[in-house]
Amino acid sequence: MLHITDLVVRYGSAVALDGVSLNVGRGEMVALVGPNGAGKSTLINTVSGLLKPASGSVVVEGTVAQVPEGRQMFPDMSVEDNLLLGGWSIRNRQLDEVFDLLPDLAGMRRRKAGRLSGGQQQMVAIGRALMARPDLLAIDELSLGLAPIVVDELAEHLRYLNTERGTAVLLVEQEVTLAFNLCARACVLEAGRVVVTGPSSELAESDAVRKAYFGDL
Ligand code: ATP
C-alpha cells in the first residue's frame, strides 16, 4: 500500500535520500533503522507529504498519518483538544474510537498535554494520528526518551492496532531490538541509501547489522 521508488530528496544541494526504494504491504509493519543522519526522518516526512522529492515517487494507497519525532504536543491544550487536531471531519465519532483503542487517554482527556509524562504524551501523539483513521501510520521514533516499560506498553498498543484494525506501520526506531521485535520486515538505511531490506529475524542475524547495531564481532 506504500510504494517508494528511486526516491531522491535534497536539502539545497545536500542529498539526503539517494535513490531509495521500499514497499510496505497492506497491514504490514516495517521497521526503518540506521545511524544518525541516515535519512530516516527525511523518508518519513516525504511519505507523509511534508517534503517534496527531487525525483522518484511515493505512492500511498489510502491515508497516511504521522507520529512526529519528539511528539509535538500543544502543551497548554487538553489531551482531548490535542486529539481533535488530528481529525478534521469525523472528529467526535473518531474520538470515541481512539478512546476505545487507547483507553488510558479517556481518563486523561481534560488534562493539559504538557503536564503528562513522556510516555503518556507519546500515546496522545499516536491517538492524534489515529484520528485520521489512517491506513498507514508513519512513526518517527517511538521510544525516544521513554522508559523501557513504557515503550513495551506502547508497542503492545501498536501490535493490537495492527492485528485488530489492519493498520500498516512504518516505524523509524533507534532501538533496533524493539524495531525488529515489533516489525516482521526491516530496512536498513545508511547515508541516504538502502543497505538491506528483509525479514527482521534474518537481518538481526546478519553480520553487517550485528556489527553496526549490537556491537558484536
Ligand atoms: P536521526 O536518527 O539523527 O534523526 P535521520 O536518519 O532521521 O537521523 P535525517 O534527519 O533524515 O536523518 O537527515 C538526513 C540528512 O539530511 C542528514 O545529513 C541531515 O544533516 C540532513 N538534513 C536533515 N534535515 C535537514 C534540513 N532541514 N536542512 C538541511 N539538511 C538537513
TrEMBL record:
Residues in ABC transporter domain copies: 2-216
Assigned keywords, A-Z: Amino-acid transport, ATP-binding, Nucleotide-binding, Transport
Pfam families with a match to the protein in the record: ABC_tran
GO biological process, one term: L-amino acid transport
Entry-linked InterPro entries: AAA+_ATPase, ABC_transporter-like_ATP-bd, ABC_transporter-like_CS, BCAA_Transport_ATP-bd_LivF, P-loop_NTPase
Molecular function GO terms recorded: ATP binding; ATP hydrolysis activity; branched-chain amino acid transmembrane transporter activity
Family: Belongs to the ABC transporter superfamily.
Protein's name in the database: ABC transporter ATP-binding protein
